[in-house]
Amino acid sequence: MANPWDAYVPGIAATWDGRRAPPSTSGATAKSAPPAAPQNLRRDPREQRLTALGVLFALGDPRAPLLAHERLLRIQELVTTKWGLLQGGWLRDAELLWIEAFELLDLDADAIEDLALLIAQGVCGRAEANEVLWDLLTNYGVDGPLGDLSAKTSNMVTMARRRLDAPPRDHRDMARWSWRNAWFPKNEDFSPMRVPRDRRSRGDAQGRPLRPPACWVPPPPPPDAPQAQQAASSSQASGWGASAGSSEGRMTMRRQGR
Prior knowledge:
The protein is 47% helix and 0% strand. The chain is mainly α and 258 residues long.
């Protein structure tokens, strides 16, 4: 399956941090912004469920490619440098990022409620919601930003709940459900407990999002690492590497006549 980000990366590689203005209509190309005539608008827009951006494209609004480019920049920031806070944050800053993601995906109230209730269902529910949001932002929301994703989101949440929630005792799904489903995330990589303490995340060199755990920025080495390593080696050489109260420490002291 082709990576939907490949069509947009050349145009956003130099502007992924959002500081540069989106390209003008005259200078926009198929590589830097979505096409002015989307392929998935083949019927009357009144017969389709479109996002607000899709309606602008259907009406031929000349600002639509610029808005689509700006939307892509914001999505890219969420799934690269801000993904650590999205996946593992619980306070107001993380809540605002989730609200921004809902706005960029143009979800309706029912889909937002489904995701919000899934988030509140403990660590496993948050892990499932994180994976749903990642798929929406990096796949469906980029490859087809014009169609309404609300029904798709609710279906993805329903599939996640079929694994988390215990079915009735006389239901056939009870044969393949266990309490482990409610206590251990299906995909540990999206668990909020797997996010590094500093929550620093990144994309690749071209600006594409990296799926967890490849997105985590490794912690920098401590500034006094060489001195600490040298001190440890010198203490072992002098016989004080082990505790004086341990058997190894007492034997070392006897050998050295202490």
